Amino acid sequence: xxxxxxxxxxxxxxxxxxxxxxxxxxxxxxxxxxxxxxxxxxxxxxxxxxxxxxxxxxxxxxxxxxxxxxxxxxxxxxxxxxxxxxxxxxxxxxxxxxxxxxxxxxxxxxxxxxxxxxxxxxxxxxxxxxxxxxxxxxxxxxxxxxxxxxxxxxxxxxxxxxxxxxxxxxxxxxxxxxxxxxxxxxxxxxxxxxxxxxxxxxxxxxxxxxxxxxxxxxxxxxxxxxxxxxxxxxxxxxxxxxxxxxxxxxxxxxxx
Length: 256
Prior knowledge:
Elements lengths: L4 H21 L30 E5 L4 E2 L4 E9 L5 E10 L7 E3 L4 E3 L8 E3 L6 E7 L8 E10 L9 E6 L4 E2 L10 E3 L2 E2 L2 E5 L6 E6 L5 E7 L2 E5 L6 E9 L2 E9 L1
Parallel strand pairs: 2-11, 13-19
Antiparallel strand pairs: 1-3, 3-8, 4-7, 4-9, 5-8, 6-7, 9-10, 12-14, 14-17, 15-16, 15-18, 18-19
Protein name: T9SS type A sorting domain-containing protein
InterPro entries: Reeler_dom (IPR002861), Reeler_sf (IPR042307), Secre_tail (IPR026444)
Organism: Nonlabens mediterrranea
């Protein structure tokens, strides 16, 4: 009797395809944000890379600095995509890759792995935008970075032809008090060798400079007028954290 191998192959392939489809539409509870704490794993673990559907992800609502215990509303959106099916994975970590803060899901999203500290993933795929909230830790844990991975899917009931784009926020520094240094000046915002910091008659202070990965790259004591040598820093975006008598403020600058 002649065997129908095509029929048996179809029966074998159907459960696999359904598993991929159901797994995507129901969200991905695994650790796939691309963060250090997620072993840098992202959605390409399940979705083959290579497609380009034109969308650009953007995470908005991230504060310049966080206050312990405060809640922040964030929005992750994929703008300009040519497809109509989307997904995401997001988490927040300190500079040691430890999950920090507590997440509250919004419309179309759900807790990742069921724990409020782990992060979020999608629960619906028909919208390219998700709004949710993150509550800062009850005490300062140093710089916090948000990591996310997004999917633009071609709705072909499989993992081919999809596009994954990951990203992360600038490191968010802790603001121990809600009072900032009101008469603090830093210039230029685009610097080459020297960063000028003027405390404008305030007492001596301390400077900490962090890179985009949340790593502390330079420390310096400050007087009223300062010229900080940044020639050794690599080109990129940095955060300057200035502390004077317990009052903290943070400014961004670009090193050329």
